[in-house]
Amino acid sequence: MANKTIVLACDHAALDLKKKVITHLEDLGYATVDVGTHTTDSCAYPEYASAACQKIQNGEADLGILICGTGIGMGMAANKHRGIRAAICSDTFSASATRLHNDANVLCFGARVVGEGVAMQLVDAFIGTEYEGGRHQSRVDMLTAIEEREARR
Predict the structure, then answer these.
(1) What 3-state class would DSSP assign to 66?
(2) Rounded to an integer, what distance in angstroms lies between the CA atom of residue 53 and that of residue 79?
(3) C-alpha R_g of the chain
């Protein structure tokens, strides 16, 4: 799986943790795309979440990792994008299960919620788990159907 490309984004609250996650991923052999932010100046997280999600939508990245203060804002912004299934996680069971059962393609977490050690565990659980499919596919299809119906409204 180390041949996958991971896109990362953060807001000003999570810059240091994002840099550490990038180093961790690259040490594991993953290609990374960093769409910002690149400073600790106050910024608007939806812009960076959108930039990351667009990389997944256009095939430039396979998975995404979005980090802000809590992970919540990034998750909300990411889930506004067609084809994105973002999960906000602070435990490894959820990070793994959301890939396994929900085919999540974006992991969100908060730099003010989890420490560096837990962050790396979340990343490893998320990227190290493949979608199981099977009985879960009908539910993922339902999510897609909701997304398509709402896009027509």
Answers:
(1) strand
(2) 9
(3) 14
Task: Please give the Cα distance from 12 to 31 (Å, whole number).
Answer: 23
Summarised one tens digit per residue, pLDDT across range 93-113 is 999 999 999 999 999 999 999
Count of CB atoms situated within 10 Å of the CB of 62: 17
CB atoms within 10 A of CB 14: 28
Residue 45 pLDDT: 96
pTM of the model: 0.97
C-alpha distance from residue 6 to each of 133, 137, 138, 144 (Å): 21, 23, 26, 22
Backbone angles phi, psi at 42, to 5 degrees: -55, 135
Q: Which two tokens stand for residue 64?
A: 């995404």
Return the active site residues.
68, 101
User: Do residues 106 and 78 make contact, with C-beta atoms less than 8 angstroms apart?
Assistant: yes
